[in-house]
Design goal:
2 domains, BirA Bifunctional Protein, domain 2, 353 residues, alpha+beta, Enolase-like, domain 1
């Protein structure tokens, strides 16, 4: 007599709907904290009722222009997982897949591939030609369509992402602490080019309900699970409430790097999406700002009191160069000592930190 087959595993789905800014972060923190080994995976959804700014655990609060946030009425929340400052509002649907740590891949690249591939499938069903770009960008071509992140909380690993229906590029740039208006303009230019939305990609009729439906279907298929819509358990609610207290404290907001400058060797670097960033640095009388796009220096500005007309020639020599020290040094070799100094200044910004 054949044995009774094992029942299919369950995927718990928790749709919190529209919640406060604080709860939109604490929801998945709490779900992860309450998870034990052997528990069913949880797919959770939420939308914030009001806009706010979120920053990753190990990033310096000095990356954020707090005066601009106060002027715009934007609270700042520090999340447990990594990544830089991001602007969040009700035009973004957040999804989080949380699994016991012992069932998640140990390698970060595999973690992202395994748990973002279902989201990519859902985006494609919504009518956009989405792909994984880099390790964890969901993109259409070289335009990021979803911001993602991952981290361990307690005995669980959570991979988070968002569906961007519309996006305030200008506000995102305004909340960043940047050394110059020139850098702000360049970050804004690249963000408008490389950060997209469902509407901009032709899926403007997609509803929040449809996006949730496709994400739920895709994750249920990928995990081979029976989908079960539930409310948070008592243990999860207690954990969520605990995180609401933690994230509301000033010590948590300031974080482990408060009072320290950010960026490589004192420079300022802003990631726009996978393969695209802006870097600015200054040492003595020499300064540089440059944009890196898909492995090459796309735009370069050099400034220095004693450079006169040489600044334009230095910038022109670097534009189009591979973002590699050897390639930069070769381009700058004809400029002798000034070229050597500039190569040293540029070097930290050739890779994303």
């Amino acid at each position: 007599m054949a044995g009774i087959p094992d029942p299919k595993p369950t995927l718990r789905v928790l749709d919190a709907g529209t919640v406060s800014a604080l709860r939109s972060q604490c929801l998945w923190h709490g779900i992860a904290s309450a998870m034990s080994p052997g528990d069913a995976p949880v797919l959770s959804f939420c939308r914030p009722a009001e806009p706010y700014v979120s920053i990753g655990f190990h990033r310096a609060i000095e990356e954020i222009d707090r005066k601009a946030c106060r002027r715009l009425g934007l609270p700042i929340l520090r999340r447990q997982i990594g990544g830089g400052p991001v602007y969040i509002d009700r035009d973004q649907l957040f999804f989080q897949i949380t699994v016991p740590v012992d069932s998640a891949p140990a390698r970060v690249d595999r973690l992202y591939r395994d748990y973002l591939s279902p989201a990519v499938r859902a985006f494609r069903r919504l009518g956009v030609d989405a792909r994984l770009r880099g390790s964890n960008d969901i993109a259409v071509g070289n335009r990021r369509l979803s911001g993602t992140g991952a981290g361990r909380i307690g005995d669980a690993v959570t991979v988070v992402g968002n569906v961007i229906f519309r996006f305030e590029h200008r506000v995102m740039i305004e909340i960043l602490a940047l050394p110059s208006e020139a850098m702000r303009r360049e970050c804004c230019r690249l963000m408008r080019t490389h950060v997209s939305t469902l509407g901009a990609e032709g899926a403007d009729r997609t509803t929040f309900a449809r996006a949730r439906e496709e994400l739920t279907r895709a994750y249920g298929e990928a995990l081979g699970s029976v989908v079960q819509t539930e409310s948070a358990t008592e243990a999860e609610e207690r954990a969520i409430a605990g995180w609401e207290e933690t994230l509301s404290t000033s010590s948590w907001l300031w974080g482990p790097r408060s009072g320290r400058w950010f960026g490589p060797r004192g420079g300022r670097q802003v990631k726009i999406c996978a393969g695209v960033w802006v870097f600015a640095a200054h040492r003595g009388d020499l300064g540089v700002q440059m944009s890196v796009v898909d492995g090459r220096l796309e735009r370069v500005w050099i400034h220095g009191a004693e450079l006169n007309g040489e600044a334009e020639r230095l910038g022109g020599a670097l534009e189009g160069a591979l973002a590699e020290p050897a390639a930069v040094e070769k381009r700058l070799a004809p400029f002798c000592e000034t070229g050597r100094r500039l190569a040293e200044l540029v070097a930290p910004g050739l890779t994303l930190h």
